[in-house]
Amino acid sequence: LHVGVVEMRDCLDILDGRFDQLRILHVTVYGIYPWFFDIEHGQNLLPNLRIFSLCCKKITDFDKSIVSVVRRMLNLEELHLNIIVECNGRLIDGDTLMKDIILYMPRLYKFTFNICSTIKHCDQTNFALNQHIEKTLEYFHYNEIITCIDHFQENGCSQCHIYSYPYKWKVYNNITNNFRGGLFTSVTEVSLYDERPFEDEFFLRIAQSFPFMKELTIKNLKAQNKKQLVKSNNDNQMLSIIEYPNLTRLDLAYTHHDYVELFLFDRKMALPNHLHLRVDYQSLEKVTYNFARYTRPNNCAKLAALYFYLVDQIDEHIKKYFPHTSMRCTDDFVLRK
């Protein structure tokens, strides 16, 4: 059974014991709200369930939303978790998974996961190192386990990402400069975030790792450090062509204008036609020299649509600069699922 639900209580209803003959269940939850866990739900055991998969974008109580549910699946053989968790006490690591879940599932033989846990710095007594997280996962023999931990000083939080490799999910969120690379053929949607600048070689690594990526979101307000160095070396001859052949939607609304310039005007950036771009209007105005920059080649003619605020106040300059591009409101830019 494959189901998509809006709230976690809908998932809990399915798992309250009324479907006691259910053997395979895949659930996608689009929102979890902590007060729903105060609502009474059946806590019957689920001895017939053999395969359980859960995908959720936001979990605020790992114990109540995950641990208490899967412990009732006494004979579970396969477990697949694709979740983002906001933690209070500590980040989720191998020790957490072992003592809270695996020890209660004697028949479990396949466990794949993609778990991104975050914690505010005010809730941390010490800052975990990547080596420590790796050590807690050394007894997992199902797959190769990749770990990545980032501490964001400006945002006041830390992020720990642990996942089974080969990676099986369609979305890979919040990639930072610590990304180790690899090949992710299942991924079509990617988001990048960091408080350190993304340099050109990072975007090349992303292109090589996600050959079938269709949607890319970049959030980085830091200017590139190596931009002038690259320009001084014979206009980008140092780096290979960066190709995103399957890209259809690109979100640069919350980035430094260096990245807008990179994607629109850098000669080594190869983008496909019919691209939908969301961008900050001021950044677009800046990198196009107030819509008077006609350097060739560029990627401007490849844009099918531009999305930004105040679309009803655009002047004739931008319309002439993008004569074949549709101008739309930023709220209409929705990533396809």
Overall description:
Helix 9 links the parallel strand 15 and strand 16. The strands form 3 sheets. A 7-stranded mixed beta sheet has the order 1-2-3-4-5-7-6. The protein has a 7-stranded parallel beta sheet with strand order 8-9-10-12-14-15-16. A two-stranded parallel ribbon has the order 11-13. It folds into 2 domains: 1-168, no CATH class; 170-337. The chain has helices at residues 8-14, 62-70, 94-100, 130-136, 200-209, 227-232, 257-265, 281-287, 316-321; strands at residues 2-5, 24-29, 51-59, 78-87, 110-120, 144-152, 157-165, 171-175, 189-193, 215-220, 242-243, 249-255, 269-270, 275-279, 303-308, 326-329. The longest helix is centred in the middle third of the chain and has 10 residues, at 200-209. The chain starts with a strand and ends in an 8-residue tail after the last strand. The protein is elongated, with a radius of gyration of 23 Å. The chain is of the alpha/beta class and 337 residues long. The mean pLDDT is 87.
Quickly describe the structure:
This protein has 337 residues and is an alpha/beta fold. It has 9 helices and 16 strands.
Oligomer: single chain
Low-confidence stretches: none
How many domains in all?
A: 2
Portion in strands: 25-35%
Overall pLDDT score: 87
The total count of strands amounts to 16
Output the strand order for the largest sheet: 1-2-3-4-5-7-6
Helix % is 10-25%
The structure class reads alpha/beta
Gross morphology is elongated
Indicate the radius of gyration in whole angstroms.
23 Å
End-to-end C-alpha gap: 20 Å
Give, in order, the helices and strands: EHEEHEHEHEEEEHEHEEHEEHEHE
What is the count of helical runs?
A: 9
Biggest beta sheet summary: 7 strands, mixed
InterPro entries: LRR_dom_sf
